[in-house]
Write a structure and sequence with these properties.
113 residues; alpha+beta; OB fold (Dihydrolipoamide Acetyltransferase, E2P); 2 domains; six-stranded mixed sheet; 30% helix
Length: 113
């Protein structure tokens, strides 16, 4: 009986180690891959970043204009932005329901492909 328990514990430990290895190799521990993101077009860069989300995004259902914080939480630098530019915004998922809407917790902003 004790031998069966030891084998079961060993198998469970191996499964846990295997799952952890898969997450690390896949980059599944990357904050930016776990958080929502959307593409948008820059409307204004000064005094605040104002964007309009692409029509096919969930964020567009929230508001047609969104102020986006440029105080990024990640190590990635803020790219140089210009009016009309397409960008990808990675954020916490929280949108303040004002008008325009507001996104405060922004992890990263990238130039869209």
């Amino acid at each position: 009986m004790k031998k069966s328990i030891k084998i079961l514990v060993a198998v469970l430990v191996l499964i846990a180690l295997n799952a952890t290895t898969v997450f690390v190799i896949c980059g599944c521990n990357d904050t930016e891959n776990l958080n929502p993101s959307f593409t948008a077009t820059v409307l204004e860069t000064e005094p605040k970043l104002l964007v309009t989300p692409d029509a096919d995004t969930n964020e567009a259902k929230s508001s047609d204009k969104i102020y986006v914080s440029t105080n990024l939480i990640s190590k990635n630098p803020l790219p140089e932005l210009s009016v009309g530019q397409k960008i990808k915004i990675v954020y916490s998922g929280e949108i303040a329901e004002s008008y325009p809407a507001q996104i405060i917790n922004v992890f990263a902003i990238y130039e869209a492909d």
